[in-house]
Amino acid sequence: QPIWVISSPDQIAVEGNEIIPDRGVRSLLSLSYPQSLLRIEPQALASRLTSNGSVIASATVTRQLVPPGLMVQVQERQPVALAIAIPAPDGEAIAKAAKETPKMPPVGLLDANGVLVPLEKYKALGASIALPSLKILGVRQRDLGKWPGIYQVLRESPVKISEIDWRNRTNIILKTELGIVHLGPYSSEFAEQIDVLDRLRALPTKLKSTQIAYIDLKNPESPALQMIQSDPTTNPKLPLKTPSVRSKQPQPPKAISR
Prior knowledge:
19% of the residues lie in helices and 27% in strands. The protein is an alpha/beta fold. The strands form 3 sheets. Strands 8-7-6-9-10-11-12-13-14-15 form a 10-stranded mixed sheet. Strands 2-5-4 form a 3-stranded mixed sheet, with helices on one face. A hairpin with a 4-residue loop joins strand 4 and strand 5.
């Protein structure tokens, strides 16, 4: 029937959006006007909203006959980290970084489930969003499957972690409120390493941060401190004792010589 026609985007009501404005959500529908309401397939439109790493996590679309229109209910992805595929400390162009990792956006927003959306996609939709305080450097496509477990551990940790440097696959480096932390390669010990870090929260009361190069948690059972020395030829690692929260006592810490 002629009266059941959508003549403009104004006949599409959007609910549930906080980051993406209504006009941005409507643009994702890719509808042409006028459009017969009875020929519109709501399920197909909902799938269009959530396809291809969209900023929309889930969506439902329903038709409204009187007055004619569409009701779009969305749940947006909530970014928890700013992911940088290849940092450019020497000022290299973003285009060069994108060429070296074609499957990854140069800069993206990562949600708790490991879905990475290019930052440019948010900007193109007119998103109003505060960038997450957590930054990840050097994230790769194959890392995204590990992210839900990693983020769960980080979210539960009392120690504030502001940066994960994953550029070196053999040594993940964290920037934390306690200082720089070296973890070695990602492994099943990650949760234990973060737990040991939590038990080192009293460290700033015992040593000045200017004395510590980094905390070495490559072996969580034998944590150590890499100290800063005026003489570069004598730069020792000091073993740390951490209070145990498990019934199984960790092995006594061993001194690590460089």
